[in-house]
């Protein structure tokens, strides 16, 4: 998996966590 895709997924997860919280 390209590191860019991984970074994007991680950023997405953090954003979702922020919204869920």
From TrEMBL:
Superkingdom: Eukaryota
Region (Disordered), start-end ranges: 1-21
Protein name as annotated: Uncharacterized protein
